[in-house]
């Protein structure tokens, strides 16, 4: 099934079930008012949501209305936990080569994860509002899973069963701020503003055969200012799948329902597939020509991230954002 959260002026919005073709929706207020409440009691709530989903797809939803992604918050507007992985290791290898550094010897031994901001995710059409272009505004197109409760010490096979929903994400990054934070030896904070999410989150069964081995085997399309910048395969060249990322996260602690875990910007070894972030294109330019020719995003730039199924139809809806100067700075 496909789920969205509509903006009703509250922090957590209102849960809605969305039709498979993303054309209509139905409020789930009689079942669960928010997605977090559904995740907290998923075994009981999910079958009821699925029944409404089947009714909606059959055209029998008596209170159905036109679905508008512009009215959506993130499917899960805020979460108790957010972890960001680096499962596409060729991205790290390109970065090390561009910086003249050795590739870590233990790169493939275990997943790499870091904590991310989870208190306020952006909706799919929310603007990327920042104070300065000089911060080095970049996007990272990826996929995140949303879990129910994952027990401490869960194996990858066990954690696989805890994946309840998937969605697209844009992990917005401020590259010029990240350099100083990385040099300090601590994690990224100022260089990682709020993450944007696709209009809907979907259950794994919606992906059919494309969901196998704990990965989605479909390309993600990224367009910057209307020009295709990359469409790498999400399932290819992924060193650690989502269950492995979850097992690593929960080795010494549990993860509560509503935890959001992503695998980092999608990247393939085959560069002709293009890139899901600007920094990776810049690293490739350095490694190939020794000169960077691609700038980071500027105010007014537009970004679109989407995944199409084998039938050519959008699965999650599109993340469509415009970069703008924050009002607090523009007025000065």
How would you describe what is shown here?
Helix 3 (89-99) packs across helix 7. This protein has 332 residues and is an alpha+beta fold. The protein has a 6-stranded mixed β-sheet with strand order 6-5-18-9-10-12, with helices on one face. Strands 4-3-2-1-13 form a 5-stranded antiparallel β-sheet. Strands 7-20-19-16-17 form a 5-stranded mixed β-sheet. It is built from 8 helices and 20 strands. The mean pLDDT is 94. The protein folds into 2 domains: 2-70, no CATH class; 76-330, Fumarylacetoacetate hydrolase, domain 2, CATH 3.90.850. 45% of the residues are buried.
The CATH superfamily name of the largest domain is Fumarylacetoacetase-like, C-terminal domain
Unreliable runs, pLDDT <50, ≥5 residues? none
- What structural class is derived from the secondary structure elements? alpha+beta
> How many domains, as an integer?
2
Largest sheet: 6 strands, mixed
**Overall pLDDT metric:** 94
Q: What percentage of the residues does DSSP assign to strands (E)?
A: 15-25%
CATH architecture of the largest domain: Alpha-Beta Complex
**Series of secondary-structure elements, N-terminal to C-terminal:** EEEHHEEHEEEEHEEHEEEEEEHEHEEH
Distance between the termini: 46 Å
Specify Rg, calculated over alpha carbons. 19 Å
Number of E-type strands = 20
CATH topology of the largest domain: Fumarylacetoacetate hydrolase, domain 2
Instruction: Report the top-level CATH class of the largest domain.
Output: Alpha Beta
The neighbouring-strand order within the major sheet is 6-5-18-9-10-12
